[in-house]
């Protein structure tokens, strides 16, 4: 599904990603952990082409993102992304936010599109907010709508870039519970950048630990939390847990 081969990423002279080699299988849930500035968000943003790579190859669902001939819009149809901030269209209702991309990109039949959007609202527990404007919703509710909007395109992979970091603490669990439900009930590939250790323990098949633009550890979840091998990972976990 996703394969990094010797990927390098620079911002000017700053070396943001260093020799990244990583494979993510279809249906796998992978959590990326590490200190701030370690390259986690940069890595996840390269997967849907928001950040171009300078060296190596990045294959996403058969598309080589290093190839200038790759149709990035076609690739992105299969890769959804949920950001820290919700980026909902303020001038459209909740239901219209969810229906817009399938209408414009997939040319979905309007009745089918509406039915699918309403089903997604049931999934995220906000069917009663269909005709509301985003500004009337809490941050946690807006993030759940953003997840529904990403799912509306029926992506094969869903990327989460610290989806709870901008939320008040009491709203975090509602969003994490939706993410757990997606991971449990679908065959979707998920990559999640987060600092929510409980979520990582419960949901992730694997944990990737990054620091200074490098992958220092790639291990099954239980193994990582019980016996992290890298000293940086050990220090990170001890600080998070205390």
**What is the total domain count?**
2
Radius of gyration: 18 Å
Low-confidence stretches: none
Structural class: alpha/beta
CATH class category label of the largest domain: Alpha Beta
**CATH fold label of the largest domain:** Rossmann fold
Q: Helix coverage percent of residues?
A: 25-40%
CATH homologous superfamily heading of the largest domain:
P-loop containing nucleotide triphosphate hydrolases
Biggest β-sheet strands, sense, barrel: 6 strands, mixed
Strands of the widest sheet, in order across it, are: 6-7-8-3-9-10
The outline comes out as: globular
| Mean pLDDT across residues | 95
Count of DSSP H/I helices: 9
**N-end to C-end Cα span:** 36 Å
Beta-strand residue fraction: 25-35%
Organism: Weissella kandleri
Domain ABC transporter: 2-237
GO molecular function: ABC-type amino acid transporter activity; ATP binding; ATP hydrolysis activity
Family: Belongs to the ABC transporter superfamily.
Q: How would you describe what is shown here?
A:
The structure is a single chain. The protein has 242 residues and is of the alpha/beta class. The protein is built from nine helices and ten strands. The chain folds into two domains: 1-70 and 156-242, 3-Layer(aba) Sandwich (Rossmann fold), CATH 3.40.50; 90-154, no CATH class. The protein has helices at residues 40-47, 72-76, 94-104, 110-123, 139-151, 169-185, 197-203, 221-226, 231-241; strands at 2-11, 14-24, 29-33, 55-60, 63-64, 79-82, 157-161, 189-193, 206-211, 214-220. A six-stranded mixed β-sheet has the order 6-7-8-3-9-10, sandwiched between helices. Helix 3 runs parallel beside helix 5 and helix 4 (110-123) packs across helix 5 (139-151). The radius of gyration is 18 Å and the shape is globular.
